[in-house]
Amino acid sequence: MFEKIHQETFGKSGCRRIVPGQFLAVDPKGRAVMIGAIEKQKLVYILNRDAAARLTISSPLEAHKANTLVYHVVGVDVGFENPMFACLEMDYEEADNDPTGEAAANTQQTLTFYELDLGLNHVVRKYSEALEEHGNFLITVPGGADGPSGVLICSENYITYKNFGDQPDIRCPIPRRRNDLDDPERGMIFVCSATHKTKSMFFFLAQTEQGDIFKVTLETDEEMVTEIRLKYFDTIPVATAMCVLKTGFLFVSSEFGNHYLYQIAHLGDDDEEPEFSSAMPLEEGDTFFFQPRPLKNLVLPNLIYFCRLIVYSSLCFEQIADLANEDTPQLYVACGRGPRSTLRVLRHGLEVHTHEFDAYIIVSFVNATLVLSIGETVEEVTDSGFLGTTPTLSCSLLGEDALVQVYPDGIRHIRADKRVNEWKTPGKKTIVRCAVNQRQVVIALTGGELVYFEMDPSGQLNEYTERKEMSADVVCMSLANVPPGEQRSRFLAVGLVDNTVRIISLDPSDCLQPLSMQALPAQPESLCIVEMGGVEKQDELGEKGTIGFLYLNIGLQNGVLLRTVLDPVTGDLSDTRTRYLGSRPVKLFRVRMQGQEAVSQWRSIDPTSQLSCTPILALEKLGAVFNQVAFPLQYTPRKFVIHPETNNLILIETDHNAYTEATKAQRKQQMAEEMVEAAGEDERELAAEMAAAFLNENLPEAIFGAPKAGAGQWASLVRLVNPIQGSTLDQVQLEQNEAAFR
């Protein structure tokens, strides 16, 4: 949770254009912060720490300038010199006093640097320069020992590097998509960026308004920037802000849709993507071209982290009704913009997912076991091979097509052809604990006796000739999964009532021999050996798995979780970490998340001590008030109503600066024909192949964006939606430049 450590009031009349708060910039060394308004006012605060290391903030220092509009503010990296801030500004005083409008047409934007003099404790305008192009935002370039300092100015069609002194301006065109359906007269701008910096290098990721991300690097010669290089990186939905995390992820926030967390798989250095440079000769107004493609350097995990549902009142419409007949009303919301628009159905409560691969449920009672199949309905299975007149301690898949049931009086090995091999406990002993993986079964009998079984290549489960007597009763056990390419897991972890955990070898050379021991502060409740932080490996049969570090997780009865490193060679235990989870015993379960092993902790216990088994449930968004289902739309939703007789939804969707599907197809056909006609006789066949590939290209507009048709161009449709299934029952596409509004 965030804790408020300081609160500063800098405006009394609400949100106005002269009240600071629209822009926020921090000195890269953390010494000062500038808060700017859209017009006139800018305040600078000096940040310090007192003797107790608490943050202290000075009184505000004014950096106001009347008759000035501010477009962007950033902190300039000048090392440990006086903090400096760069602002994109425009002075409108002359334009305001000229009734002819000539001054307004000739007004130029300026790049202004403000310096905070820490010695004199005031802010001065150090330098100001008029710009040729109208800039929309700035990017800070690392300085001091990390880089050449200065700023990158992002403007229409160009990105420009500027700095003090003898540094000349370096200017590079922004590349455009090849064979783009956009209005050719329309300019291109960068809308957001992220900076990645290490001790030896830095680069920027800048995103255009079409969603294309470019990797931007600077070439230097003795602290002077000589060249800007741009390389196409990937295309993702247009963001309002991006941030490169130190863990190798790219967080992307959006104003009109879901937020995403991408993993950076490659830095784009080794691919065949062309690199564009400011040093390449181009005529004024010309630019570079590239071909967009699906993700290559970024990997999108399955989890979408956030969603902003309430956008602006003009772009979000909702109705509350119980259209699903659930006795609790649902909230139906049409939100978003353009091809990323969605119709969302919200229900109060947490979102729960059942494991999609489970086919059976095994329910164990005090004196019986019930096998249920999962399908359209849940039905009892009578020919499973399980013994139904006894409780089940463990059930698992053994090998590729066999099952194993461990119950107090024995073990049932159920083969694929329904043959059952059964092992009974000797004398009056019973099985109290067990551990099972794909090829091994270990049981603990009353009195602390361990019995080990291993599956041979023919699929037969064989008992090891010797048994192991432990020094105390066994309270929990764990086996790791069999590593890919191996016949067995080498280690067995055994928790004893004497507050110890023992590591037992299962290697044929020293089977059931103790390898190491760890004393515990309380009696163990459960154990779980998992491999985490590994890399993918493929065995001789082509089966894939991960090889990583072995960890022994120990849940204690006093609510403490221990995690210790298990040496994969010697079986030694080391580097124990401790975490208190609660007052109840900690039960551990092995699960798989995103293709790798993980541990799930369960801290509550059944007071009746009855054994039970349930399907896996995932509560992924514990902080959410609503769970939701989203259905994609084509254009920005303008309004929807509920049809009173059918309970279906009728939506109108409309976008300005957009093409209808028919117009887009005509435009593509026209451009394909022009490609063939413009080619010479020798290149006609190649041009025809390129034209055919262009016509067949279908990039999803929700990611790559919809083409911009130009001012005055409209696209619209009317849609009939089943709100329960989210399916479109019918839709009417209006003609180009016809638009439906509420």
TrEMBL record:
Q: Supply the InterPro entries for this chain.
A: Beta-prop_RSE1/DDB1/CPSF1_1st, Beta-prop_RSE1/DDB1/CPSF1_2nd, RSE1/DDB1/CFT1, WD40/YVTN_repeat-like_dom_sf
Query: Any keyword Iron-sulfur?
Result: no
RSE1/DDB1/CPSF1 second beta-propeller domain span:
355-599
Name the UniProt key words of this record, in alphabetical order.
mRNA processing, mRNA splicing, Nucleus, Spliceosome
Q: Which residues form the RSE1/DDB1/CPSF1 first beta-propeller domain?
A: 2-270
One Pfam family recorded for the sequence: Beta-prop_RSE1_1st
- Superkingdom as given in the UniProt entry: Eukaryota
Q: What is the predominant subcellular site recorded for this chain?
A: nucleus
Question: What organism does this protein naturally occur in?
Answer: Sander lucioperca
GO cellular component assignments: spliceosomal complex
Biological process terms in GO annotation: mRNA processing; RNA splicing
Places the protein is found: Nucleus
Signal peptide (residue range):
none
Protein name per Swiss-Prot or TrEMBL: Splicing factor 3b, subunit 3
To which protein family does this belong?
Belongs to the RSE1 family.
